[in-house]
Design brief:
The chain has about 350 residues and is of the alpha+beta class. Helices cover about 30% and strands about 20% of the residues. It has ten helices and 17 strands. A hairpin with a 6-residue loop joins β1 and β2 (about 15-20). α1 packs antiparallel against α9 and α7 (about 210-220) packs antiparallel against α9 (about 315-335). The longest helix has 24 residues, at about 315-335. It is globular and about 70 Å long. The relative contact order is 0.18. The structure holds ligand EPS.
């Protein structure tokens, strides 16, 4: 069975949930490590006051016993503490009693750049909140929890994944300036995965190409508008003789003298570091709103203004790390299979022996 992830949850609903299927039995999970990633995602300069309400922590509802996976679906939950302020507005069932708290009034002022208008049109919504709640980047919390599980699995085969803000210098100044102007900013993040063996992914079909899958995993994160692997767009300006990575043999196996491909050639990992970059657009909720149209009256109006982040690029680095880790774990499960962790690691060892390759 392949590794698969299903998530659910609204930003101000009771909780975010994830079900992970296809994990091997016997993988040891560390609750503190998962919670540490959840905390990393909450930090960063320019985050919304929402992060003072939330103290994200994972709850495990199924699939784990005494810290070890059972090989059965792993069910995770991250509670939304802010839900206590939305119990009427986000009640899953028709609410009882007088309207109270947040979310009472229908939202009819779509924000350019958010899911509001598309959601209202696509699903025929009278209250844009029905769209924005699920589209919210709050949902990335449970992906980070799933990514932490993926990282534990990858660590068993010597793979380490790390995300960072690509150009961290100056970020705070940009955020301060944007905040003062009641505006928002985006940025670029980079994820690097070390120890990925050659042979994950396949050139056999478009869908199985590892680079296509990594790009989709990262592009699927809220606010990401561009993804590149290795030298990406810069390769377009180079000659072939400058763009490719020459093959040599050293004591660790067949290697490359450079890594312009970012660790993937022809949709298959080549044993070099996987390098994925993502560009995040400036967040769409603006304190000085852009023009919009009131969906109730059809008249020009300013877009919705509500609490939001000035920047979430440092959070994106953590979410992109989780998404890349998840996709690499899916590809590793495909390649090495196994019902138990021992089977999985054993298949990886035998494969490395066959290709005479060791991680650097
Ligand atoms: C978000 C809007 C804000 C962010 C949220 C993403 O939510 P709120 O209106 O509750 O302040 O804080 O991100 C998170 C809650 C989170 O945990 O990352 C949006 O519209 O995407």
């Amino acid at each position: 069975m392949g590794l698969a992830l299903t998530t659910g949850g609204e930003s101000h609903g009771p909780a975010l949930v994830a079900i992970l299927t296809g994990l091997p039995a016997g993988l040891v999970l560390d609750r503190d490590a998962i919670d540490a990633d959840l905390r990393r995602r909450q930090q960063g300069y320019g985050r919304s006051p929402r992060q003072q309400i939330e103290t994200d922590a994972v709850e495990v509802l199924a699939g784990l016993r005494h810290g070890r996976t059972l090989g059965t679906p792993l069910a995770l939950l991250v509670a939304n503490r802010d839900h206590r302020n939305w119990t009427w507005g986000m009640s899953p069932w028709p609410p009882e009693g007088e309207p109270e708290g947040k979310g009472k009034a229908a939202v009819t002022l779509p924000r350019p750049g958010h899911a509001d208008l598309a959601g209202a049109q696509k699903y025929g919504l009278a209250d844009v909140r029905d769209a924005l709640e699920r589209a919210s980047a709050r949902h990335t919390a449970v992906h980070v929890a799933a990514g932490a599980v993926a990282k534990a699995l990858l660590r068993a085969i010597g793979v380490e994944v790390a995300g960072s803000v690509h150009d961290e210098a100056g970020l705070q100044t940009r955020v301060d300036e944007a905040r003062a102007a009641r505006d928002t900013v985006g940025g670029v993040v980079e994820v690097r995965a070390r120890g990925v063996p050659p042979g994950l992914g396949s050139y056999a079909t478009k869908e199985s190409r590892l680079d296509a899958r990594l790009a989709a995993a990262v592009m699927g994160i809220q606010a990401v508008k561009g993804v590149e692997i290795g030298e990406g767009f810069r390769l377009a300006d180079l000659r072939g003789s400058e763009a490719h990575d020459e093959i040599v043999r050293d004591e660790t196996g067949l290697r490359r003298t450079s890594n312009r491909a970012g660790g993937v050639e022809a949709g298959v990992s080549n044993g070099e570091e996987i390098v994925v970059r993502a560009a995040m657009k400036p967040l769409p909720t603006l304190m000085k709103p852009l023009g919009s149209v009131d969906l109730d009256t059809g008249q020009p109006a300013e877009a919705l203004v509500e609490r939001s982040d000035v920047a979430a690029v440092e959070a994106l680095a953590v979410v992109a790390e989780a998404s890349v880790a998840w996709e690499l774990a899916v590809a590793a499960r495909e390649k090495f299979g196994g019902d138990s962790l021992g089977d999985f690691v054993g298949a990886w060892r035998a494969y490395l022996e066959r290709i005479d390759w060791t991680a650097r």
